[in-house]
Write a structure and sequence with these properties.
With 671 residues, this protein is mainly beta. 6% of the residues lie in helices and 59% in strands. Keywords: Cell outer membrane, Membrane, Receptor, Signal, TonB box, Transmembrane, Transmembrane beta strand, Transport.
Length: 671
Amino acid sequence: MSIFTCLVLSLSITTDSTIKKQNFLLDEVTIIAQRNEQKVFNTMGSVAVLNAKNLKNYQYRSTPETLFGANGVFVQKTNHGGGSPFLRGLTGNQTLILIDGIRLNNSTFRYGPNQYLNTIDPFLIQNIEIYKGGGSVQYGSDAMGGTLQINTASPEFSTDKPKVNGNAIVRYGTSSLEKTARTELSFASQKMAIKAGLSLRKFGDLIGGDTTGVQTPSGYDELAFDIKAKFQLSKNVFLTAAHQNLNQSHVPVYHKVKLENFKINEMSPQKRALSYLQFDIKSEHRLLKNLTFNVSYQGTEEGRNSQKNASNVYRVENDQVKTFGSFINVRSEILPNWDASSGIEFYADKVNSTKQDTDFQSNKITYSRGLYPDASTFNSYAAYSLHHINLNKWDVNFGTRFNAYAIHVNDQTLGKVKVSPQALVGNLALGYHLENHSMTYLSFNTGFRAPNIDDMGTLGIVDFRYELPTANLKPENSYNFEWGYKFRTSTFSSSVALSHNQLRNLIARVKVEGQKINDYQVYRKENVEKAYIQGFEWATEWMVLPEIKIYTDLAYTYGQNETKNEPVRRIPPLSGRVGVHYQMNDAFFIKVEDIFAGKQDRLAQGDKDDNRIPKGGTNGWNVLNIYTGYEYKNVTLIGSFQNIFNVDYRTHGSGINGVGRSLIATLMYRF
C-alpha cells in the first residue's frame, strides 16, 4: 500500500472505541500533558486514548497487545511473553511507562525492545493514555519518544447503602492458544470502596499464519492478583491504597531456541509487584487547589535460564530491582486563567544480580558475577513546575524540571564508581483555537535519558553480542518540535501531527575490535552518536449514522543516524488501520478492522546483523480482524476472530511471527 493511497484513505475515515449515540471524544480527558485533567482536544500535543469500554469490548490478550494498531504506536514482540511499544521510533529505555503516575521504568531498563509492559495485568486497566514526543518535563528520564500512562480501575463509593458486586470472566482460544479465568469482588459504602481480583492464565504455543504453524516453544503461565481501596477520610481528604502482583513462569525466548542453538532459553520468573499509598487533598485556596502525595514500593524480578544444545552446563541468572518512590504534586490557580502543577519526586533503586552455572556431567556448581554489579544503587531527585495560561483563543503551556542522580556501582571490572549526572529540561507550546471546533498548535519539548545501571554495568551476553561495563557516560538528550491541527464536530473528528526530534549524546554500543568472548563480538557503550527522527500521525473518524462509525489511523516515521550516516535502528515502517464499528442499543456490537504495515527495508547495520530481521528487511502485511459482542442482562459474550485470512506476518524487529487464524471467546458474568 503506497503512502499516497493511505493518505487518501485517511481523509475519509479513525479511532477505535465503542460507539454510543454521541461522540465520545468530546468528554474524554487525559492527565499526562500537565499532570492534571485536560480534554484531549485541548491538549497541545499528539495524544491517543484507549478507554475502558474499548478494553472491555475487545478483550486483548495482553497489555502490549492493547496497543496493537493504536495511532502512532508500533508494537514489537521479541517473544510471546513480551511486547515493546515504539513511540516516535523509540522504545525500551527511551520511552517512559507509568502506572497510576508511578514509573515502571527502572535502572535496568535496556536499550531496545523489552518485555516489562507485559508484567501489567490487562484486567487492571481503566484506560491508557499515549503522549507522543513528550513527558520528560512532567515525569523525568526516558520520555524521549513519549510517555505511556496506564491508569488502573478504581472502586467507586456507594451513594446510599453498602453494596457488594463481582465479575467472573473465562476466556478460551482455539488450539489452546489461551485459557484464562478472572474473578473480581468489590465492596462499596459511602466512605469506603474496595476492589480485588485474581487472574489465572495459561498461554499455549503461538500459532503463526499459513506457512509458519505452531511456534514451539512460546507458551507460558501467568498468575496475577490485585487489590485497591479508597477511603474518604474527611470532606476533602481521600486515601487510596493499592497492591498489584504478577508472576509469569517459563516464558520462552523463541528466536534464541529457533536460531541460536539453544536447547533452553527462557525467562522464569518474570514478575512485578507494586504497592502504593496516595493521599488526595482538595482545598478552596486557589494556590493549593489539590495536593497529591504518593509513596510506593515496586519490585521486579527477571530470571533467565539457558542451556545450549550438546552442552552439559545449565545457566541460571537472576536480576532483582527494588524501587522506593515518592512524589508530591500541587495544583494551583495562580490567576483565573492561569493554572499550574508543581512538585518534587524521589526514586531509589537497589539492584541485585546473580549467575549460577551447573555442570550436569561433573555436578559442579559455579557462582559468578551477574549481568549487573550486585548491590548497585540508583537514586533520582527532581523538582518541576508546569503552567497553562488561557488567553481567549490562545493557549500557552510552559514548564521546567531539574533532575539530579546519584549512581553507585561496585564492580570487579570498573571498581567503585560514583556518577552524578544532572539534567535541566523545559517545554513550550502555543495553541490557537481557530473556531470552537478546530485548533492548531506548535510545541517544543526537551527530553533526556540518564545513564542507568544497564548502560554502566552490563557484563555478559545481550541479544547477539557480549557487552562490557562502562563508567563515563552522560545523559542522552532530545529536542522535539511538533506542529498539529485538530478538528471536531459532533459527528466527525480529525487530527494531524508533524514532528521532528533531534537526538544528541546517544549512548551506543561500540565494537571492541579484535575481541570475542564465547564466539560473541564484544561491545562497550559510549556517548558517541547523534540522530534525528521525523514523521507524521493522522487520525480521523466519522460517525456515518448514530450506530456506525468509520475510522482510520496512519503513522510514518523516518530516522537517520547522522554519526553513522545510516538509518536509525528498528525504525517502524508506515503503518495504520481502517475499520468500521456498528453498535446496536448497547447490547450488540461488531467491529471489522484491517491493520496494515508497509515493508521496512531501510536498515541500519545493526538491523542487518539482527537474526530477527529477514535479509532485505521485513515484508509488509495486512491483517483483518473481526470483534463482536452481545450483552444480555448480567451476561456478556465476546468473540475475537483474529487474522481471518491466516496471513503469515511479523511486526518489524520481532523474534516471533504474529498470530494466525484463531478465535478467542470470552464469557463475562456480573453479580
